[in-house]
Amino acid sequence: MPVSHVSALPSLLEALTGLTDPRKRRGVRHTLGSVLAVAVVATLGGASNYRELGSHARDFSPRLLELLGARWHPLRRRHSPPSAGTLRRVLLAVDADALDHVIGQWLRAHAACDGDGWAIALDGKDLHGAWNDEGRLVLLSAFMHRSGKRGAVTLAQVQVPADTTEVTQVKALLEGVDTARALVTADAAHTCAKTARHLVEDKKADYLMCLKGNREALHAAAVEVGRVLLNSGQAPHTLTEHAHGRITTWTTWSTDLDGELDLPHAARLAVLRREVADPIGRTVSKEVVLYVTSRKDLTGEGFSRYVRGHWGIENLEHRARDTVWYEDAQQAYLGHGPRNMAALRNLALSTLALHGIMKIKEKVQEIGRDHNRALPLLMLT
């Protein structure tokens, strides 16, 4: 969405300046805030690894380097960009939790929305190229998606410890996020009593979660409710989308719950059917899924809208990070580097979403040709 209220909000450089510098003071030439700001602009221009960050930075104009707070070189009489080595060392060392928090807070401040028109999607992603002694790096993120608007804004990100799963990290992920009146959407892995109770009772939010066979008894009870619902003759909510050479039809039936499911605060259940056809109407695939929510007034149209929003985030975020920045091909694994690089990609995607930009690769390529185009996106002009 176009950002129209930025004048009273901090620029990203101001937000990054508050981070603690992990480097020893001796020999430091570039401030932490300026190094990170350079990395952000380079990432918006398509840089996907440390070497490319340095290469992009060398192409920055003197005016851009000045605005980013780059070091003034007394002999060359101009602002000097940090080298690829400096960028690498900083991203390896800077506290990943702190960087994620600053990015999430800055994005949330610029993504104004009403409390009833937005949702938070929980989504995990493996960084396939980032291995260490404990295994592959897995990150769990909270993305804000808003009704009627495409694109997602990253609110928080945590690393999932190797000896546990995403489910155990929901509390840590949302600890610093204001979720009051939000609808938290999640896939079937998160559908459990502990998460449901935490979201409603502790975070003052509602949930919308998928039901599958991983919770056998709960799923069986939901299937029975769904069977009765489908036989009731209720007129479903139907929506047809035409995109990417496919015709997708979403059909949604929903009903109230009265204790049929052993899940805290479960108020409504929906059966969603997604049929995908080719341009001449031949069925390509058909899928039926069950969803449960604690929001008592969520209609069939609401179920459909938020489920489509959640699925869209999974597809858009993963695809963009892998096709624009080739995330799964990156083999950085030391220190906080992989997670901090992922945070920069999250920030780049979220910034584009805030400005209503959906042609992501095209815009990234434009910025790569002229990095000054990133300035209005980051509220630096």
Defining key terms:
Transposase Inhibitor Protein From Tn5, Chain A, domain 1; 381 residues; two-stranded antiparallel sheet; alpha+beta; elongated; nine-stranded mixed sheet; 37% helix
SSE blueprint:
Elements (H helix, E strand, L loop, with lengths): L11 H6 L14 H13 L5 H9 L3 H6 L3 E3 L4 E3 L3 H10 L2 H15 L7 E15 L2 E12 L6 E7 L10 H4 L9 E4 L6 H10 L3 E6 L4 H15 L6 E7 L2 E11 L11 E10 L5 E11 L6 H24 L13 H18 L5 H10 L12
Parallel strand pairs: 3-6, 6-7
Antiparallel strand pairs: 1-2, 3-4, 4-5, 7-11, 8-9, 9-10, 10-11
Level of helix content?
25-40%
Describe the sheet with the most strands. 9 strands, mixed
CATH names the topology of the largest domain as: Transposase Inhibitor Protein From Tn5, Chain A, domain 1
Mean pLDDT: 89
Task: Tally the beta strands.
Answer: 11
**How many domains is the backbone divided into?**
2
SSE topology string = HHHHEEHHEEEHEHEHEEEEHHH
CATH architecture of the largest domain: Alpha-Beta Complex
The gist of it:
With 381 residues, this protein is α+β, with helices and mostly antiparallel strands. The chain is 37% helix and 23% strand. The protein is built from twelve helices and eleven strands.
Can you put this structure into words, describing what you see?
A hairpin with a 6-residue loop joins strand 4 and strand 5. The chain has two domains: 6-94 and 334-378, no CATH class; 113-323, Transposase Inhibitor Protein From Tn5, Chain A, domain 1. Helices cover 37% and strands 23% of the residues. The protein contains twelve helices and eleven strands. The strands form two sheets. Strands 5-4-3-6-7-11-10-9-8 form a nine-stranded mixed beta sheet, sandwiched between helices. It has a two-stranded antiparallel ribbon with strand order 1-2. Mean pLDDT is 89; it is low at 1-8. The longest helix has 24 residues, at 300-323. With 381 residues, the chain is α+β, with helices and mostly antiparallel strands. It has helices at residues 12-17, 32-44, 50-58, 62-67, 84-93, 96-110, 170-173, 193-202, 216-230, 300-323, 337-354, 360-369, and strands at residues 71-73, 78-80, 118-132, 135-146, 153-159, 183-186, 206-211, 237-243, 246-256, 268-277, 283-293.
